[in-house]
Write a structure and sequence with these properties.
By secondary structure, the chain is mainly α. The protein is 61% helix and 0% strand. It is flat, with a radius of gyration of 25 Å.
Length: 165
């Protein structure tokens, strides 16, 4: 594993290379592709964005492979066990995201977002949020998720019993 000092130093030069490659591809398309100026501009921007996103993804995968980005605890709970709610959220997000990428790639236009898809993503994210709330309540030890708010029969807070009168 890399030192904490070395963790971010690799990204800035790599980002510069990615931007230069993207600008180079956009200039190549602008000069050598036949067509009118508007078509060249659309192609340059579209392919430039595609190349930049690809290079960002490749840089992230390369950093993961070389242990500059640690993903070993991505799906773990704080106690060390596997988190089904995190796994569900990651899988739903990837499946829906890749489905939309395939639809856009085959049809050439962005599809309408069905409410069922948004509902499934909302349910998945809510499941994750509720599980984090349950973990926070269990961590405090009183089962309520708050500290120091237990009341006695007289209505005074738990901390009020020890105060001098």
């Amino acid at each position: 594993m890399a030192n904490n000092e070395d963790k971010g130093k690799w990204f800035l030069p790599l980002f510069g290379v990615m931007v230069v490659v993207t600008i180079g591809i956009a200039i190549f398309i602008g000069i050598y592709v036949p067509g009118d100026a508007v078509t060249k501009l659309k192609l340059s921007i579209g392919y430039g964005a595609l190349v930049l996103v690809f290079l960002f993804g490749f840089a992230i995968l390369a950093a993961i492979a070389s242990d500059k980005i640690n993903i070993s605890e991505l799906l773990e709970e704080e106690s060390g066990g596997a988190s089904t709610s995190r796994f569900q959220l990651v899988i739903f997000t990837f499946v829906i995201g890749l489905s939309f990428v395939l639809i856009v790639a085959t049809s050439g236009k962005f599809p309408d977002l069905p409410t069922n898809v948004l509902a499934l993503l909302g349910i998945s994210a809510s499941t994750y949020g509720v599980s984090k709330g349950i973990q926070a309540g269990a961590k405090n030890g009183d089962g309520t998720g708050t500290q120091g708010t237990n009341t006695q029969a007289g209505g005074a807070g738990a901390g009020d019993a020890n105060k001098p009168k």
